[in-house]
Specification:
alpha/beta, Rossmann fold, Immunoglobulin-like, six-stranded mixed sheet, 21 helices, globular, binds beta-D-glucopyranose
Amino acid sequence: MDVKKVVSEMTLEEKASLCSGADFWHTKAVERLGVPRMMVADGPHGLRKQDQSADHLGINASIKAVCFPTAAGLACSFDRDLLFRVGEALGKECQAEGVGVLLGPAANIKRSPLCGRNFEYFSEDPYLSGELAAAHIRGVQSRKVGTSLKHYAVNNQETRRMSVDARVDERTLREIYLASFEGAVKEGKPWTVMCSYNRVNGVYASENERLLTDILRGEWGFDGCTVTDWGACNDHVAGVAAGLDLQMPFGGAHNDEALVRAVREGRIEEAVVDRAAERILTVVNRYLEGRDRTAVFDRAGHHKLARAVARECMVLLKNEGDLLPLSASRRVAFIGPFVKHPRYQGGGSSHINASEETGAMEAASEYADVIYAQGCCGREDRTDKELLSRAVNAAQAAETAVLFVGLPDAFESEGYDRKHMRLPECQTQLIREVLRVQKRVVVVLHNGAPVEMPWADEVPAILEAYLGGQAVGGAVADLLFGKASPCGKLAETFPLHMEDNPSHLNFPGDGDRVEYREGIYVGYRYYDKRSVKVLFPFGHGLSYTTFAYDNLRLDKERMKDTETLTASVEVTNTGRVAAKEIVQFYVAPAHEGISRPVKELRGFAKIHLEPGETKTLSVQLPPRAFAYYETAISDWYVEPGAYDVLAAASSTDVRQRARVQIESTRRLPVRVHENTTFGDAMKIPGAQEILRPLADALTAVMGGGDSKALGESTQQMVDAMLRDMPLRALVSFAGDAAGANVLHDIVRALREAEDRAQA
Ligand code: BGC
């Protein structure tokens, strides 16, 4: 279809009607011009295509499809290729089912462990989140099916998600909440971006021109179509004017009419409606051109893939005395509510009608004879004494007890937040009672976000399975019995207590307002800076082998802020089994400067190593890896100074460190006035000359008239004090020694020097 031509032949009414959906899951057709409707469906970790009763809350059934691990789990793979492969499989399912756009992935930052939807989000770290979302997008779109990167932006809680106003300062917005979307947009190039329900600094995301147009398109180069979250449109005309293209689901005829009226009354230009129609049709056209009517998908093959993927995502949190892997010859008891019916996905719009399910019991039969006890019903806090006592007996009869626990649906879902970070009481009691009779205990967790583990010290082994998709039981069995070594690492911090989390005092806010007062100190950025002890740190994950890191090398010792640094490190498998290691590269500023996290993740790689094998892996660290967002210039800025590059096994397990010195080619402008500090003024080239007479006069006043009278250490103190004094105060302290009119003259001379420097 020649999109421009079709749009030029459309009436205003037709163009306006295109800007809202036909029904829950389709764009509108314009039959007169041969434009068909296009279907969209959720996402993100499986296809939720509804043929019959439609809803966006996961209530009515959808077609059978394969449920992969949710993003919280996928993120722990730290594996771009894996995310690509999952995306590709989803793209194939969409092709086979005639779906043009899959609604995902979701790149919102995990601000609080209590957000009910964290299972759908990747990480507390924007770099990791952006990289993985981009890989997912590339995978789906490689099958010529679109994605909808969501929920843009600052949608980090479910409480009042449709009305809450997230108040976040500019630097935090850029460095944390937008950075995750920025990476995904720039590298993934999604066909569509879905705006969120909430307001951002007072303006609904669906009519936020700054987000939808200035930043998304102007700065990041997005050229696709923007769409509302389902029901997120506040004022359709304001939305379209701000850069919103498609309102979903339908909005009603009055919305289309309002848009027509706004054009006729001159409140919005027709060209703006043309632009939205063109963008929507461009996506429809892309889908039509790539449509493969012969496509079928291999459900059994995708189920196998789901098992392999889940294996790569689970995180071995603890393994004292090498309790795992289990030996098939020892008697094992599987106990818990999630043995036979694992919880492997979350509630809400992403809920998949899974094509099949593999529970751990069934999968373990490939390896060993296992005895079973349910232990508790798991869905509520109430303990069932009979179930509990059978579980204790089973644990006693076995040599190792594996407990399958986690969060029930009612505790964690789209649409509401968690009330606390604990497991249901009956599960905690089950763990405690089993520990009384059995010391060899493994806990396998099925949850979409961190839980408190008051029993963690007494349990020797803990495997975090997250919400591992429909083949979760198979993957857990493969890891428990050592078919593969665990190789996931945490994409978020597990705090010891909910109160330790930086958002705690301001989550979920008061009424319709939530203030992000912790600023840039989200997740490990906060725990690191405050040296807060955590249960398991960001980036942590064990393996059945061990790895040594050597020879971290940087390709430069000094460089300019415009250059890219290459860092490489050698990693050796020093244990006895083949396994994969995730190597994390952090940048830690090593100079005095603006307030910043101790370190930030700027690169990662995952490698497979046979026992004894060594490989060198390297990452590129572009200027952005060293930059912070400087609001004075509305841009990223690299402070001059020393930076350490860390090669680490987790955020608290730094193995290698090397330093680079960076020279800035850019200087932050100083806007001089009477209250500019002496230190800031001195940053202006030529300031030394201008300020010397004043400094001498001051020193002379302090030295009783003799500018040389101060000793060296006193002089240093004076210098340090001078640095933060405004020019006005300095002149007044110097008194007559500074001469008349001096403040005015100094400010003028400094302004001229600044103008010369900026020219
Ligand atoms: C969710 C979106 C989803 C949409 C359509 C909304 O409630 O926030 O993530 O894609 O419904 O089901």
